[in-house]
Amino acid sequence: MTKIQWGILSTANIAQKALIPAIQRAKNAEVTAIASGSDAGKARAVAEKFEIPKTHDRYEALLEDPDIQAVYIPLPNHLHKKWVIEAAKAGKHILCEKPIGLDEEEAREMQRVCEENGVLLMEAFMYHFHPQHERVKEIMASGEIGDVRYMRAAFSFFIGNKADNIRMHREKGGGCMYDVGSYGVHSIRNILGKSRRQSMFTQLWIRIMR
Asked: Which one, out of 33, 112, 127, 149, has a CA that is 20 to 30 A from the CA of 23?
């Protein structure tokens, strides 16, 4: 069986906790290379930990690697557009962390460049193909529970007072709506499909720990 050769752009925690182990468990894929844009030592350390054959000290070098067919991009939100476009121009298929972009204009530009270069682009929502999620979609589509007039989504976790957390920096695409609000919007739209009339509201709670 021919395996898809993956490259990882960044040593981000989510890559180490989720995507790299998942790809390594797959029968039709393997992680061939990893790159760090700021610290080559990090790339070597992660490569040693997961027995990844190759490391690169620049993202561009990984994209130039002819052995790589697909890349996973777990970079901060404000860097998604740049590296999705660079990967597409390099002919790599792309799995990019959510949110795919900071606005509709960014998302459409990424879509256009990927289509022009004949590569696939997917936003990395972990539940998208989960059997439970698919079953919910089937139930909704069948009309088994009648017409859906209201749907609520909630997602929360304690972040703490961490000034260095990327979620705390607006200029880097931080904030709760990009980071976790995207789950609610995506899951509702994916389950129900597009509707002709849409309305929504949000609520934000801030828990202060002393």
From this structure: 112
Residues in CB range of 2: below 8 A, 6 or more apart: 28
* Catalytic pick among 98, 162, 172, 194: 98
pLDDT tens per residue across span 102-153: 999 999 999 999 999 999 999 999 888 899 999 999 999 898 999 888 888 8
By C-alpha distance, which of 29, 123, 125, 22 is closest to 68? 29
**89 annotated active-site:** no
Short-list 4, 12, 56, CA closest to 31: 4
For 4-123, CATH gives 3.40.50.720
Q: How far is CA 186 from the centre of its chain?
A: 12
Beta bridge partners of 96: 73, 123
Residue with tokens 């995506």: 186
Nearest to 79 by CA among 157, 7, 176, 178: 178
Where do you find CATH 3.40.50.720 in the chain? 4-123
What the block records as the tokens of 66 is: 């002819």
What separation in angstroms does the CA of 69 have from each of 19, 32, 179? 16, 10, 28
Contact 56, 34 (CB under 8 A): yes
DSSP code at position 174: -
